[in-house]
Amino acid sequence: MNRRARAAETEAALKQAAKRVFARQGYLNTKITDITAEAGRAAGSFYNHFAGKEELLTALLTDMLAEGDRAVAEDPTHSADFTDRAAVRWHIAAYWRFYRAHLPEMIALRQASMVNAEFDRRLREIMAADREDLRDHLERVPVLPGDPELVISAMYSLLDQFAWTWLAAGGDGSGRTLPDDEAIDLLTDFLYRGIAGSGTANSPT
């Protein structure tokens, strides 16, 4: 293995190790030595790839967002017609499964945004991009229950906090578990009926 291949392997190992440690103990409680120990690499090797923990998280977020964009672009079942329950469910399922798949990054970003202005800006940029997608999709709905910007805010807040509660925080304190499909269907019905009403032509009987 040549030097470039070894460097790429080490960088990938550090990223994967960081995700495991972030998931286990949170971003704020993670030290660089925790990451290198998890990766089985020398502590000094970290700085051959990243200037610090913040730069590593930025790299993870870049990878995460690129993967999300590819998944949407490559799925032929994607539809922007929010008068169709199936289209609403597709988006909620995509969001939920993306959140679960990238839980370490989502935990790290939320925690980092509380103490670092740059990550707070990144979080707001991600939210703004999601809201722009929702704005485009909601333009197809003839009558919304309120101001479109407030509808978007309500939808995003519900999805984000519900995902955080059940995927990151371990539930609502009741001790129950929530299967993914149950969560997705609950959110779909709640939002679909709120957006398009339950009496549209595409509503399931």
TrEMBL record:
Pfam families from the xrefs?
A: TetR_N
Among PROSITE patterns, the record links this protein to: HTH_TETR_2
Tell me the DNA-binding residue spans: 31-50
Keywords tagged on the record: DNA-binding, Transcription, Transcription regulation
What InterPro entries does the record tag this protein with?
A: Homeodomain-like_sf, HTH-type_TetR-like_transc_reg, HTH_TetR, Tet_transcr_reg_TetR-rel_C_sf
Q: Which SUPFAM superfamilies match?
A: Homeodomain-like, Tetracyclin repressor-like, C-terminal domain
Tell me the protein's name: TetR family transcriptional regulator
